[in-house]
Amino acid sequence: MIRAPFSLEKTEYKAEPGVIVYRSKPHATLKRNFQILPGAKWLEMLLQHVPDRGEPLVRYYGGYSNRARGTRKAEMTDAEAAALPEAVPEQVDPEASRAAWARLIKQVYEADPLVCPHCGGEMRFLSVIEEPPVIERILRHLGLWDPCPPSQAPPEDDDWPVNGQIPLTYEPLPAIGPKP
């Protein structure tokens, strides 16, 4: 949120009773200009304004909200809409995007991806291979193809029957509680 949910100048903490007094302009229905809350209740009310993880931090109200902007755009005449500047798509420089990719990898992993691990020379970015059959063929040629079984798969054991059951055993638990 852009604005704070409360004003520090209007907030006063009374340590003796452990309450927070919030003063503001007179309320229309309560007919008073203050609110007294215990500390925990005040924190609960304050934390309602903190967004959950993954929620947007900025919310727009009033004239800046999506609904108000959409309404204004729908009510515009053709002449007003033509007067608005059009968004021009930016041309992406491939060299700049490659440099940004390498810089971000270096920043995250603290290793330069464009330095040869064998000789230390500078490598060039040629292309991206995304097709799984092509990747498999290259890795097989290099002797690096090792498809791993899924990590959740049970261990392969030839001694265990195909539709076998796990043998269950029963061992009594000791009695818990006072002895009779």
Written account of the structure:
There is one protein chain. The chain has 180 residues and is of the alpha+beta class. It folds into two domains: 1-79, no CATH class; 94-142, no CATH class. It has five helices and three strands, in the order E-E-E-H-H-H-H-H. A three-stranded antiparallel β-sheet has the order 1-2-3. Strand 1 (11-14) and strand 2 (19-23) form a beta hairpin. The longest helix has 16 residues, at 94-109. The chain is flat.
Q: Could you give a short account of the major beta sheet?
A: 3 strands, antiparallel
Strands across the major sheet, in which order? 1-2-3
> What's the average pLDDT?
77
The parts where pLDDT drops under 50 for at least 5 residues are none
Label the overall shape.
flat
Helix content: 25-40%
Beta-strand proportion: 5-15%
Number of strands: 3
The end-to-end distance, rounded to whole angstroms, is 63 Å
Secondary structure category:
alpha+beta
Keywords for this entry:
3-stranded antiparallel β-sheet; single chain
Task: Walk me through the topology.
Elements: E1 11-14, E2 19-23, E3 34-38, H1 39-47, H2 66-75, H3 78-83, H4 94-109, H5 132-142
Antiparallel strand pairs: 1-2, 2-3
Gist of the model:
This protein has 180 residues and is of the alpha+beta class. The chain is 29% helix and 8% strand.
